[in-house]
């Protein structure tokens, strides 16, 4: 996943969805998906269909989570045989990996950690219809032809069930005026152990800000590092 360094071709469907608005590419993921921002305060996500997640799933989860936390409002979603798309209303703030925040990693890492804790505290586990527990993730991976090592079939006991973001990498927290302001890309959101999110969020600090920030994010979240759960959930993430 990266912010495009050069102009990208705008798909015809994106131009159609944008209407008279101008668009600029702001994100590219590993599956060939692109995200564009329009000059009338919308985001348009467009990408090939894949068996890992779908924009339809994301739209459903955003609609549910939006009753409790600040997430993008879905304006339109759809797809055809090859591609799918999702249009949302823009929110205040920038990604935690925008240039200004990469230059201020201490601020960004604190915001991501505090934002993740706020998300976990706000979303009600008992009312969540979505699953992101270990058995679900392993079964989902198997359905995509991925063999999960036997060492990962016996997870650590659950510390605290929360509604996980499920892709809590730093880019998916928005920051406004130095504080977290919203969360994006919730296409796999579901109930799981909070360490499943903490492990990935802290691991992603090295990808985005360099080494040495993992424990700072965990401290901002408000817990002491649990090395066993961190190791397990990072291995599970990489395997699935």
UniProtKB/TrEMBL annotation:
<keyword id="KW-0418">Kinase</keyword>
<protein>
    <submittedName>
        <fullName>Phosphotransferase</fullName>
    </submittedName>
</protein>
<feature type="domain" description="Aminoglycoside phosphotransferase">
    <location>
        <begin position="51"/>
        <end position="231"/>
    </location>
</feature>
<comment type="similarity">
    <text>Belongs to the aminoglycoside phosphotransferase family.</text>
</comment>
<keyword id="KW-0808">Transferase</keyword>
<dbReference type="Pfam" id="PF01636">
    <property type="entry name" value="APH"/>
</dbReference>
<keyword id="KW-0067">ATP-binding</keyword>
<dbReference type="InterPro" id="IPR002575">
    <property type="entry name" value="Aminoglycoside_PTrfase"/>
</dbReference>
<dbReference type="InterPro" id="IPR024165">
    <property type="entry name" value="Kan/Strep_kinase"/>
</dbReference>
<dbReference type="InterPro" id="IPR011009">
    <property type="entry name" value="Kinase-like_dom_sf"/>
</dbReference>
<keyword id="KW-0046">Antibiotic resistance</keyword>
<keyword id="KW-0547">Nucleotide-binding</keyword>
